[in-house]
Amino acid sequence: NISANMSGLLSRTIIYSVWFNLRYLPWTQAKHLPILIYDTRVYGKPIISLDVNQVSRGMIRIGRQGKNLWNGTRYSTLTFWGGAMIIFKGRAKLTQSVHIRILNGGVLTIGDNFYTSSNLNLHCSENVLIGNNVTHAGIATLSTLLTYTSLYALGAAPKQTEEYLKKHFGGIDDEHLVRG
Fold first, then answer.
1. Distance between CA 111 and CA 166 in Å, rounded?
2. pTM of this prediction?
């Protein structure tokens, strides 16, 4: 399987970024090489959209930059199942060991000037919007797969968690934020 070989063997080179852009973006955007992706495994068939006025080289960086002190793996994973889509509305940096799973027609929209350090786990099966100028640091799991009942089991109040997600999406270490 060529895709599996490309993921494993070339994920540390610029060739992987070229292949990724050509495969998942329209030529008018791919030719600018807007997504630089390293040490990242992609599963499923992503639908990727760049909703920006001007596309520039490396405006979206996935993997490699940053250090992960808590986890021995350097790989990030992007998983897309059942018509899942990710929309970038500007510049974004997702460092190593970031794991994003978009499932069952879910849509993840990432605003301009987004940065996340390692150990973000984002599970999305609905529509999730991350606003502009958001910086996320620390260890967090965000999920649309659990219900409000699960929030109480984790010790979080649904209204507080919902408000936090809408307002900040970041800055809490070792916290599990869950939205149903």
1. 13
2. 0.72
27 CB-near residues (< 8 Å, 6+ apart):
none
- 146: tokens are 């659990």
What tokens does 134 get? 């958001």
Structure token pair of residue 162: 């919902």
pLDDT at residue 93, as a whole number: 92
Q: Which two tokens stand for residue 119?
A: 């150990």
